[in-house]
Design goal:
- The chain is of the alpha/beta class.
- The protein has helices spanning 3-16, 21-42, 76-84, 131-138, 153-166, 201-210, 226-234, 254-261, 277-288, 317-324, and strands at 64-69, 101-107, 110-116, 143-149, 169-171, 178-182, 188-192, 216-220, 238-240, 242-247, 266-268, 291-295, 303-310, 332-338, 347-349, 359-365.
- It has a 6-stranded mixed beta sheet, with helices on both faces. It has a 5-stranded mixed beta sheet with strand order 13-12-16-14-15, covered by helices on one side. Strands 6-8-7 form a 3-stranded mixed beta sheet, covered by helices on one side.
- A hairpin with a 2-residue loop joins strand 2 (101-107) and strand 3.
- The termini are far apart.
- GO terms for molecular function: GTP binding; GTPase activity.
- This is Developmentally-regulated GTP-binding protein 1 isoform X2.
- Residues 64-289 form the OBG-type G domain.
């Protein structure tokens, strides 16, 4: 029996099963089996294998990477060429773009790489089309823009989300707050610091048994579902922010546009007429959470033209030094920082000080 047939069989059984307390245990087991089969599908057993697709993986450049995901002919290439001035082949038929087309934009001093990925079709996570390679590149992005046609958005949105979820990409979610630690002996130890409804000791044991884990500590710190536990056990999930870009708004009325504006994580645009691009860029900047640090040579004014851009969560003085050159940290004595992260301007700080957006720094060497 092929992997796809097994997956279809489990999905059918899950659709047939009623959801209630009595069946929660059984559904948890099925979900775990499904996750394991999906992983096998993405990473087939037996090394070697054929060559990768032509021109798929693109070298990562700039400070952040954004992938455009969507069905064929929703205007991804038009959007890319109008945003970045890169010529990605544009035509009015489906599947014009066959490989990844990179482009770079400069926004607020940061270099942002844009990737126009080929159109995803239904069943991409099962290896149809070029889906597997497209989504592998999507996993390496800092932000995903799902480009939708405003005339048929919701069906497409659900399908693309379903494909990405099947590949272990979680959109606009935080990693589940579950502590999970394997042990050598002592059985499964399940504790919860909050009230929980869906996961209980039995379900946890059955899911872990499916992964042949019989000794582990599991701590629930928030009310989680069976899917959350499977994500933690699998450990290969990526959590990526996502913006839904509704293209072709030149074809709808003003009233419909007002409705669209109320949807969370959504930006309506027209790629062809270049409408609302500033709104889109502003939202991209918000979702990327990049931090700009300006440098100040001794006795001179700060250089506001070329900031050093750091990703959110890695913004200490040490990270700043490593971004410029790895030998800089060896000669580092202290730094003077101006800005919102310090109490007085300038303040003398060590290498562990965490900086905020638009701080100014002056390094003092030994």
């Amino acid at each position: 029996m092929s992997l796809l047939a097994k997956i279809a069989e489990i999905e059918n059984e899950m659709a047939r099963t009623q959801r209630n307390k009595a069946t929660a245990h059984h559904l948890g087991l099925l979900k775990a089996r499904l996750a394991k089969l999906r992983r096998e599908l993405i990473t087939p057993k037996g090394g070697g294998g054929g060559g990768t697709g032509e021109g798929f993986d693109v070298a990562k450049t700039g400070d952040a990477r954004i992938g455009f995901v969507g069905f064929p002919s929703v205007g991804k290439s038009t959007l890319l060429s109008n945003l970045a001035g890169v010529y990605s082949e544009v035509a009015a038929y489906e599947f014009t773009t066959l490989t990844t087309v990179p482009g770079v934009i400069r926004y607020k001093g940061a270099k942002i790489q844009l990737l126009d990925l080929p159109g995803i079709i239904e069943g991409a996570k099962d290896g149809k089309g070029r889906g597997r390679q497209v989504i592998a590149v999507a996993r390496t992005c800092n932000l995903i823009l799902i480009v939708l046609d405003v005339l048929k958005p919701l069906g497409h949105k659900k399908l693309i989300e379903h494909e990405l979820e099947g590949f272990g990409i979680r959109l606009n979610k935080k990693p589940p707050n579950i502590g999970f630690k394997k042990k050598d002996k002592g059985g499964i130890n399940f504790t919860a610091t909050v009230r929980y409804d869906e996961l209980d000791g039995e379900t946890v044991k059955s899911i872990l048994a499916e992964y042949k884990i019989h000794n582990a500590d599991v701590t629930l710190r928030s009310d989680s579902t069976a899917d959350d536990l499977i994500d933690v056990v699998e450990g290969n999930r990526v959590y990526i922010p996502c913006i839904y870009v509704l293209n072709k708004i030149d074809q709808i009325s003003i009233e419909e546009l007002d409705l669209i504006y109320k949807i969370p994580h959504c930006v309506p645009i027209s790629a062809h007429h270049r409408w609302n691009f500033d709104d889109l860029l502003e939202k991209i900047w918000d979702y990327l959470h990049l931090v700009r640090i300006y440098t100040k040579p001794k006795g001179q004014l700060p250089d506001y033209t070329a900031p050093v851009v750091l990703p959110n969560g890695r913004t200490s003085v040490e990270d700043f030094c490593l971004k410029i050159h790895k030998n800089l940290i060896k000669e580092f004595k202290y730094a003077l920082v101006w800005g919102s992260s310090v109490k007085h301007n300038p303040q003398k700080v060590g290498k562990d000080h965490v900086m905020e957006d638009e701080d100014v720094i002056q390094l003092v060497k030994k």
